[in-house]
Fold this protein.
Amino acid sequence: MRVDNKQITALCRAAALLALLLCAAKAQSAPSQGLAVAQQQPLTQSIEGDRPPRVFIDGRELQAETPPVIVRNIVFIPLGVEFAELLGIELAADSSGNSLTVTLRGFHTQIETAQDQAQFLADGAPQLFKETPFVQDGYLMVPARDILEAFGFSVSWDQELYSVSASRTGPFAALTPGFLDAVFETPFVKPLSAQEIAQQGAPAGAQPFEYTLDNTTAFENIAVSGTVAQSNFLPTTALRNQFNMRFRGGLNSGYEFKGTLRTIESTDPVENKGAVDKLSLNFEKGGVSYDLYDITPRFTYFTLKNYQIRGVRYQRAHPGYSWTALAGKSPKILGDSEYARMVHGFRVNRSRAKDRDLGVGYVRTRDGGSPGATDQVDNSVFTVNADGVYGKRTKLQAEMALSDTTINGLSQDNGRALSLRAQYRDQAMLCTGMFEKTGSAFVSETTYVTAGRRDLSMLCNRKLNERSSLGTGYKAVRMGSQETRTAPYFYSVEPLKNRPNLKFTLRRNHERTFGGGVSRTLDVRSAGVSERFGSAGLDVTIERRKQKETGGAVSFRNSFRYRLELLLAKTTELALQVKRERRTLGSNTRTRFYQIRLDHELKPWNDLSLAASRYYNGTTNNRTDLSVGFRKIDIINDWEFNIEFKHYNFRDHNDNVLRISYGFFK
C-alpha cells in the first residue's frame, strides 16, 4: 500500500495517540518478555524478567526489526540480514520448499533450516533443535543456542543484563561460566488445547500496560568512481529513520490487547519517503482472538503459508474444535499493472484425540483493478489435512488439495496435490521422510509450490555413542521427464575423550540427473578438522567435486579453506581466513580469497575493528577490500552508536561506503 506524507503523518499520529491513551489509563511497567511470544505458548518461570532478551554476538548487539523472544524458556532469535551481517556470513531465504527455509553460509560452515522442522542441517549433517522454529513477522525464529553453537560460538546467559552472549574467544562478551540449562533445556510445555482455552474464560480485570520503543537513525553515503556501470552499488546519499513500538495490556472488557507499529522514513528518492511498514493489532479473550491489519496467517502447506495480507482474522476455539475466518488484500505488481489481490478463506480444525486432529479449509484469491497488459487470476484451493502423534516417537502428517483457476475469465484445468510426512525420534536417532506430488495444473496463489513436481526424501541421523554420529539419506526429485537423485553421507567423531574440542568430519554427496536427453553426475567429498588450543581456534576443510556431463566431459574442482582465530591479548582478537579453489575446466580456473580481521576492545562495550581482504579469480572481479569500524554501547541508558567505512578496489572502479547510525531502546 502506497501513501503520501500526509497519510503517513496521520497514521503515525493516530497510532501514537492510541498508545498514549492506553499508557495514561494503565500503570507503566518495564517491557514484557511476552510481547513477541507466539499466542498460546505459555512460559515457565525459570527465567526472571519482564522484557525481551538482548543478544550479543562477539560483543555486538543483534539489532533486528523483530526482537528475540523467549518461548518455553528457550531464547529464539530471528534469522535475517542483521544476524548475517553480525556473523559475517551469507544468508538466503527460499519459500519454494515445504516451508520457509533459510540457508546460512560462512567460510567453513553451512546451516540450512526450515520452519516447523525439529532438525537442521549443519554442513549436510542432521542435528536437532531444542525447540521447533517458527515464523514471526516474516522472520524465521530459531533457538539461539543451537544455531550459534553450530557456528562454533560459546554461549552464555547473563541474568542481570537479561541477555545472551556468544563469542568464539570471549574478549568482547560478558560471559558467565556455564550456561543456565533452564534457558534452553526446559522440558517441552504443550500449548493449551482448544477445550482448555474455551474453559479459561475472561481474565480478571485489566492488566498493566507495557510497551517497548526503539528508534534507529542512520546516514549512508555510497560513492563510485571509474567504470560505474560495473559496480554493484548505486551511488547515493541518504538519511533513514526507523521507529518500532510494541505494546501489550489488558482492557477492562477482559481482552488482552497486543500490537506492533513500525515506521520507516528515508530521503532516498528511490525509496518511499515515509511509510507505515507494519501495523498489527491483536485482541484475545479465552478462546476468541481478533487480528487486524498486517497479518501473516498460516493454514496448511498448500494454502496461506507465510502469505502476508492486510485485513482481519477471527479465530474461535470450542471444546474439541476451532475455526478461523479471514479476509483482506495483498498488493501485487504485475508488469504495467498494480493489482489489489483480494484474499478470503476459512478453516475448521477438529481434535479427535489428544494429539490427533483433522482440518478442512478453503482459500480464494482474486485480482482486482485494471489488468492492462497482464493476466488477471482467480484461484480457489480446497484442502483436507490430518496430523497425529502415535506413541511417543512417531508423528505423521498428510494433506490433499484441489485447485480451480480462472485466468482472464477463461477456466483452466483443475489441479491436485498431495503431501505426506513422517518423523521418528528417540534419544539416539531422528528420521524424517516426505513425499510430495503436485499435478501439472495445480495452482495455489498463497504459497510456493511447483506444478508437475514429485519429491521423495528420507533423512536419518543416529548418534553412535557420546562422541560420534552417522547420517545418511536419499532424495529423488522428478520434473517432467527429468529426475535427480541424491544420496548424502556424513560421519563425525571426537576421537580423544580428553580433547572434546578436537573433531573430525567426513562427508560425501552423490547426485545423479537423468532423463530428457540429460545424463549428469556430481560427486562431492570433503574432510574437515577443528580444534581449539586455549584461546586459539582452527578450522580446516578440504573438498573435491567431480562432475560428468552428458557428452562425457569430466571436470574437477578442488578447494581448501581454513580459519584461524587467535586471542593476541586480553582485549585483542585476530582472525585469519583463507580459501583457495582450482578447477580443471572453465575460464576462471583459480580462485583465491584471503582476509585478516583485528578486533580491539577499547573499553567494555566499546571496540574498534579493522579488516582487509583480497579476492582473485583472474577477471575484472579481482578486488581488494579495506574496512574500519567503531562501536559504542551504553548498556545503562540503552543506546548504541556505530560508524563503519568500507573501500572496495576493483580493476576498473572503486566503491566507498560510509554508514553512521545511532539507536536507542526504551
Residues 5-25 form the longest helix (21 residues). The longest strand covers residues 210-226.
